[in-house]
Amino acid sequence: MNDNELISDLIKIGIPSVVALAGTLSSLILAWWGHKQNLFVKKMQYIHDTEQERNSRTGDLIKSCILDINSLHDNFTAFGIMLFAKVDTLIHDDPWPETEQEVIALRFQTAITSLHKHTTVKSYVMLLGNTELTNTYLTYLDTIGHVIKTYGECETMRPDELNEFMGRSHALQLSIVRKMSAIYLIKNDIVQRP
Q1: Cβ 130 vs Cβ 102: under 8 Å
Q2: Stretch 113-117: mean pLDDT, rounded?
Q3: Taking residues 110-117, what's their average pLDDT?
Q4: Which of 144, 148, 140, 147 is nearest to 176 (CA)?
Q5: Over the stretch 170-183, which tens digit does the pLDDT of each residue have?
Q6: In angstroms, rounded to a whole number, what is the distance separating the alpha carbons of residues 35 and 38?
Q7: Number of other residues whose CB lies within 10 A of the CB of residue 115
Q8: Does the pLDDT value for residue 189 go beyond 70?
């Protein structure tokens, strides 16, 4: 066999073998790349589904908390109005009617029952993971608790002092609603994420 025949045979056998090898390698690379893309798509889908579930649960939790906070605030405001009327009446040395005492006692009981319910709500607010919201909520509970405790211990409060506590509770309640609204509407500038 001469050199030309050898080169000719190598070309006849080698080129198809190189082409077959290149085809096999490119098929393997494309399969690997497709698998990698498939894993990436599945990972992104999982992240998306997890985020949707998290947002849904957070939304449900916030709606529940807001309803409880608004109920507490309504009950506290109803009690506070009666308490202010009583304090104002007694300060002017006017008699406090017995029928009004029954109304204020009923509103006090409703407010204190609503406040006790907030041991669970406090856990839910803390579960949201927003430190500023939690601190505002705890301050709100302390403010309401102070007024209820003062009345429950038969201590008197000056009208201006009571008015200040009522105003503070209202401002704190509005702040809580704003902070929860920001989380519910997923405004990332307010939400603290781990």
Answers
A1: no
A2: 90
A3: 90
A4: 140
A5: 999 999 999 998 88
A6: 5
A7: 18
A8: no
SS3 sequence of the chain: CCHHHHHHHHHHHHHHHHHHHHHHHHHHHHHHHHHHHHHHHHHHHHHHHHHHHHHHHHHHHHHHHHHHHHHHHHHHHHHHHHHHHHHHHHHCCCCCCHHHHHHHHHHHHHHHHHHHCHHHHHHHHHHCCCHHHHHHHHHHHHHHHHHHHHHHCCCCCCHHHHHHHHHHHHHHHHHHHHHHHHHHCCCCCCCCCC
Half-sphere exposure of 104 (CA within 13 A, CB side): 18
Cα 142 to chain centroid, rounded: 21
CA angle at 53 for the pair 47 and 58, rounded to the nearest 5°:
120
Residue 155 confidence (pLDDT) above 80: no
Instruction: Identify which of 130, 123, 136 has the alpha carbon closest to the alpha carbon of residue 192.
Output: 130
Residue 132 sits at the vertex; the CA angle it makes with 128 and 136, to the nearest 5 degrees, is 100
Identify residue 137 by its one-letter amino acid code. Answer: Y
Which pair of structure tokens corresponds to residue 59? 């939304």
